[in-house]
Design goal:
single chain, about 350 residues, mainly alpha, 14 helices, about 0% strand
């Protein structure tokens, strides 16, 4: 047979299903790069570095009681940072989250005291009010197409004014009355603001709730159809709508989840201190958003996790208490947090670019 009629050897062809050796589009990336692409990995490394730093700088932080205080501070931030993070993954954010916490606590306290009813009545009405605020934010946003910045800024100002004005008109003061002697208080305190002993260390119940909520949020994002909807509407709202994702329902329920978190933290504050100051909460929304951003959530939406904000909140709690235990001027706290936020954003940006680089 002539040479021109011979077939080329088949031994040089790659096996079926295997990527070509030089095909960068299909080659499996190294494990390290795939880990770095996870949104929570960068903040985990940052949280570990902050922990080691303050354990060295503040020796008193090494005791069990000090670490319990850090975990408590982290949990109060972290419980709210979780729904805020889910909302950010969905492409929106809520500037009213901080004052919504106080609104919830004021509603429960004044309703219970002024009407002399069981505090659980006030707690349930406060839950409905918090969910209604979240639903209102989501409804206005989806109906008008306005940016969430404008919608929730308006809600923030409304709630701030209502908190002050209604509290003064009802109680004659800027704070609510003490409800510690009312029916149902002890049971509600056990749920929202109790503590328990672990090896001689007093642990707040909010730490347990924080971890439970983080596990639920992770399951919701990664194991349910709703989690797919959240990522879809955050990535590209119109494309998500085109493939049948209920965009309006998803966004409204995400805002309602923020309301649910505000209710829980509000109840914790109420049953921890028995009374509520009506002017509190301003500025806390930025702390929640910053914890989510440090945790790897993008302001543009479509990217993030529920675990990342857990470490982000822990970093806040560690810095907050670490500065005190180290004996430094606490006036530097916000400056430290600002630098930490900017550094985390830059690190996350670098890590994501390195992880996705072919």
């Amino acid at each position: 047979m002539s040479a021109t009629g011979q077939h080329a050897p088949a031994a040089t062809a790659p096996p079926a299903g295997d990527p070509a050796p030089g095909d960068g589009r299909t080659r499996r990336r190294p494990l390290a790069l795939r880990l770095l692409a996870r949104p929570e990995v960068g903040v985990f490394l940052g949280a570990a570095a902050v922990l080691v730093f303050f354990l060295i700088a503040a020796p008193t932080l090494r005791s069990g009681g000090s670490m319990a205080t850090v975990l408590y501070q982290s949990s109060v931030i972290g419980i709210m940072a979780l729904p805020v993070a889910l909302l950010m993954i969905g492409g929106e954010f809520d500037l009213s989250a901080g004052v919504a916490v106080v609104t919830s606590a004021l509603t429960a306290a004044m309703l219970s005291y002024q009407l002399t009813v069981n505090v659980w009545t006030g707690v349930l009405v406060a839950l409905l009010a918090s969910l209604a605020v979240g639903a209102f934010n989501g409804w206005v946003l989806t109906r008008t197409g306005l940016p969430s910045f404008l919608v929730t800024l308006g809600t923030f100002l409304i709630l701030q004014g209502v908190n002050l004005a209604v509290t003064k008109s009802v109680t004659g003061n800027v704070a609510t009355d003490d409800i510690s002697d009312m029916d149902g208080f002890d049971q509600a305190k056990a749920l929202f603001a109790s503590s328990f002993d672990v090896g001689g260390v007093d642990i707040k119940i909010t730490v347990v709730w924080w971890l439970v909520f983080a596990a639920l949020a992770t399951w919701l994002l990664l194991r349910t159809k709703y989690g797919n909807w959240v990522f879809a509407v955050g990535g590209n709202q119109e494309s998500a709508r085109a493939v049948g994702v209920p965009v309006t329902f998803t966004k409204i329920t995400l805002f309602m989840l923020v309301g649910l978190g505000a209710w829980f933290v509000g109840m914790h504050q109420l049953f921890s201190f028995n009374t509520v100051q009506s002017g509190e909460g301003v500025g806390q929304e930025l702390i929640y958003i910053a914890a989510a951003v440090i945790g790897g959530c993008l302001l543009t939406g479509g990217h993030g996790s529920a675990i990342g904000p857990v470490f982000g909140a822990f970093m806040f709690g560690m810095v907050n208490q670490g500065i005190v235990f180290a004996g430094w001027n606490p006036d530097w706290f916000k400056a430290f947090l600002g630098a930490m936020l900017l550094g985390a954003v830059l690190i996350n940006l670098y890590v994501r670019r390195a992880a996705t680089r072919r």
